[in-house]
Amino acid sequence: MTRERLYLFDTTLRDGAQTSGIDFSVTEKIAIAELLDRLGVDYVEGGYPGANPTDTEFFREKRTKRATFTAFGMTKRAGRSVANDPGVQMLLDAAADAICFVAKAWDYHVRVALGCSNEENLDAIRDSVEAAVAAGREAMVDCEHFFDGYKANPDYALACARTAHEAGARWVVLCDTNGGTLPGEVEAIVRAVTAVVPGANLGIHAHDDTGQAVANSLAAVNAGARQIQGTLNGIGERCGNANLITLIPTLMLKTPYRDRLELGIDAARLTEITAISHAFDEMLNRAPNRHAPYVGESAFATKAGIHASAILKEPQTYEHVPPEVVGNKRKVLVSDQAGKSNLLGELARLGVEVDKADPRLDRLLAEVKEREAAGYAYEAADASFELLARKALGKVPRFFDVKSFRVMVERRHNALGQLVSVSEAVVKVDVDGETRMNVSEGNGPVNALDGALRKDLGKYQSAIEGLELVDYKVRILDGGTGAVTRVLIESHDKTTHRRWFTIGVSSNIVDASFQALVDSITYALLKADVA
């Protein structure tokens, strides 16, 4: 039986950026695009070039290796040509493989929001798509509020979809923009649309305002749509968007989808989905949802009770899918069965070669569990995990030893009479038996420590000249003044364009920060191969 191709379109960097409390920097967007590429989605929508400096900078170059890099923006304005519409021109100038135009599909919005005629709106859809196609870009149209528009005026909503398709749009995407449509309605309306646009060119974009975004996406697929738009962990404005982290394993593991449909994600990538979900949450500096389907810490946790022996002997009877296929692990209170296979898979992904019978793996696994219990979270700190693993396997040179560090924070009035805070750090390091004392001032204790730590590393100094700290996140794991603190640091090498994340945990925030800084520099030297 030939399976039909289903395409995954991620809107985390645009729709997800509208989430309350989330504001992506350019470096964060680059890191998230790399995560999405690693996951294997087909399209990564990066934002709206020209709408703000961050998105404009992000689109100066292509940010994906595998996925189709997509720019988002509005169709041309009524009364202007494409050539005279600055918004459309910014889209055409962006370093994008595809352009996704948002268009009004509800005649009420055409009249009230755009202030133009229905026919002018159709012209804008047609001209914008044709311009993108003529520029060699894959074009698609997000039909905004399509389901509300269809229920109010089905003929006009269908005309918008038909116009986009006939103009050359690869995808016509039906948007449940306010999240108020239910699965039965979605399926019926999508089936009606297939009369004017083939299902192979139809997509679904569902918001989660009634908690139905995943169900609505599946309903649209049942009706023939072959593109799903969604976000990592379902983030998005108001109540969020369709959660790709839930949709992907459902489509790959559940009947009838696994038998009828083919995704661009293979079984090996599926085993990474838990780590990717958690890594994304760490980037957002928030705790992963313990009860998230498939990837949550409690997704495969069972209070054994009188069924303990049955669960341990036949876990498949208590689980809807094996946790290993999504990179998660089984938890039974009487026996935590975290396996060596997850560890081997992560080591293989990082390029660390080790025999599965190596007894050092057991010690490494025990150390990882012990550290995670203390607050470390290695899903989002690949560099720290790789260092930990390589040390356990005896494969990390001792580039330098930190003998001591000290930080002083002084609050005083400067020469202009302004009240300022000044941080000064002193770090003593041993390089090849020679102790070096480095002193640096900085904008805060962490910045001062960072400057002092890498001020003079002797023969290794040239290998870290391009190193910079680009992000710093703190999470309090336990409340109170003696709380355990987790620090996540993102570093970037301007020479190699490599970026990585390191982690530190301590009841002292400065100590936790210093741990992450030491790991960052050690990792940079390891990758520079200067031993």
UniProtKB/TrEMBL annotation:
<protein>
    <recommendedName>
        <fullName>Citramalate synthase</fullName>
        <ecNumber>2.3.3.21</ecNumber>
    </recommendedName>
</protein>
<dbReference type="InterPro" id="IPR036230">
    <property type="entry name" value="LeuA_allosteric_dom_sf"/>
</dbReference>
<dbReference type="InterPro" id="IPR013785">
    <property type="entry name" value="Aldolase_TIM"/>
</dbReference>
<dbReference type="InterPro" id="IPR000891">
    <property type="entry name" value="PYR_CT"/>
</dbReference>
<dbReference type="InterPro" id="IPR002034">
    <property type="entry name" value="AIPM/Hcit_synth_CS"/>
</dbReference>
<dbReference type="GO" id="GO:0043714">
    <property type="term" value="F:(R)-citramalate synthase activity"/>
</dbReference>
<dbReference type="Pfam" id="PF08502">
    <property type="entry name" value="LeuA_dimer"/>
</dbReference>
<keyword id="KW-0412">Isoleucine biosynthesis</keyword>
<dbReference type="Pfam" id="PF22617">
    <property type="entry name" value="HCS_D2"/>
</dbReference>
<keyword id="KW-0028">Amino-acid biosynthesis</keyword>
<dbReference type="InterPro" id="IPR005675">
    <property type="entry name" value="Citramal_synthase"/>
</dbReference>
<dbReference type="InterPro" id="IPR054691">
    <property type="entry name" value="LeuA/HCS_post-cat"/>
</dbReference>
<keyword id="KW-0808">Transferase</keyword>
<dbReference type="InterPro" id="IPR013709">
    <property type="entry name" value="2-isopropylmalate_synth_dimer"/>
</dbReference>
<comment type="pathway">
    <text>Amino-acid biosynthesis; L-isoleucine biosynthesis; 2-oxobutanoate from pyruvate: step 1/3.</text>
</comment>
<dbReference type="GO" id="GO:0009098">
    <property type="term" value="P:L-leucine biosynthetic process"/>
</dbReference>
<keyword id="KW-0100">Branched-chain amino acid biosynthesis</keyword>
<feature type="domain" description="Pyruvate carboxyltransferase">
    <location>
        <begin position="6"/>
        <end position="271"/>
    </location>
</feature>
<dbReference type="GO" id="GO:0009097">
    <property type="term" value="P:isoleucine biosynthetic process"/>
</dbReference>
<dbReference type="Pfam" id="PF00682">
    <property type="entry name" value="HMGL-like"/>
</dbReference>
<comment type="similarity">
    <text>Belongs to the alpha-IPM synthase/homocitrate synthase family.</text>
</comment>
<dbReference type="GO" id="GO:0003852">
    <property type="term" value="F:2-isopropylmalate synthase activity"/>
</dbReference>
